[in-house]
């Protein structure tokens, strides 16, 4: 558990412990730009200890009655709810997101992840296939064993638990690594597991960089499956490394998500929701809309409304209760996003709103703040329309016909999430069928039902999370065929 000096330790075999190599990384608060803690930079030796603990815990955990396993997950969810305030504060401090957002979305969703999979494991049925008069097949879905869960910094506890909960529910033991940029709530989860009496070794939480800890987890021969969320380049590197090792791999990667906005949309609602889809969490959600295609009849009016909203959304200290726009997660990331804005100018774009770093006063004077940024005038193949920026930056383009909108949306290497804004339900269905993304929202964004398949195609990932898809990923199907004699 983080101590008074904010030194975080690994959680292995039910206990907090220092990394074997005694190496630590600084943890920086994005709102202040100051170091406020340290985390282990764990390596193969720590992973080895975690795997040993998981191996010892596995037989009892996988043999546990489903109801008892579910009870542990429910107890974790309840404890997350009990600690809502301290977890939300930790998340906002660590990540720079508005504390109100962490309180309303991130932490409640982390609790929901455990509750959802506590129930999902009791609903997860296996198949049977009869061969008339001669045999019956039934499929066992057995835990994979020891699995690795690696998550990013944008929705720290939300995405960490989105992987851990189904992995545990399916009867696996877990070695999990949060992003080194946002380790704090993951570290607090260890104490929650202790408090509810989760058996030692069932969940092990290691901290450190991708190069050291992440790659040691991916490469450990006893870890049979890896569930990863993060950048597409990292996903590609992991897939390359793991291909000859034949591990199960789920990749939830980046997006460059189109919003198709038609003349006949419900204007007020669409402006509000598309704005939220663009800038929620400082635009740092893989599902955020980043390419806005607006039909000609409402283009100017829509643009004017978006600019007014962007100019009114002022970044503030994330720890203030009324903050709606917090800090960018790190200096490196701020520089990356600003680099894209410069590139947009070089490629002929016009900045309609934002585009500049914001310097606050007081405790946040060295923080990483950026205005919501709106760009127009770029071609569809410009860098800002093709590469994931992962920040509060959107581009606007005009279209005339449904066919044009679809062609523009599909001109992308990514395929994560599309939104369609129209009151013509036939058009919406037709476009939803043809757009190349794993998720389509019609007249809404990030309306989540945890039972649905979640993930993308092409450079946005391989496989799906959520609901029974996650239960399938974290189990091995084994078919058993019984021959009988027909009398
Ligand atoms: N869900 C998404 O779509 C996300 C996309 N990104 C994109 O990726 C870019 C880079 O951001 P990063 O924080 O560097 O994301 P990343 O993809 O490097 O990090 C995600 C997680 O993977 C781990 N990791 C990194 N290298 C690894 C390796 N070789 N083996 C195993 N684990 C490894 C990291 O420590 C972290 O826990 C961002 O600028 C953004 O464009 C970042 C975070 C989430
Ligand atoms: O499951 C959700 O609701 C959201 C998931 C978001 C990501 O995977 C992401 O931003 O990386």
Automatic annotation (TrEMBL):
InterPro entries: Ald_DH/histidinol_DH, Ald_DH_C, Ald_DH_CS_CYS, Ald_DH_CS_GLU, Ald_DH_N, Aldehyde_DH_dom. The active site is at residue 252. Residues 23-480 form the Aldehyde dehydrogenase domain. PROSITE patterns: ALDEHYDE_DEHYDR_CYS (PS00070), ALDEHYDE_DEHYDR_GLU (PS00687). GO terms for molecular function: oxidoreductase activity, acting on the aldehyde or oxo group of donors, NAD or NADP as acceptor. Coiled coil: none annotated. Keywords: NAD, Oxidoreductase. Signal peptide: none annotated. It comes from the Bacteria. Pfam families: Aldedh. Belongs to the aldehyde dehydrogenase family. This is Aldehyde dehydrogenase.
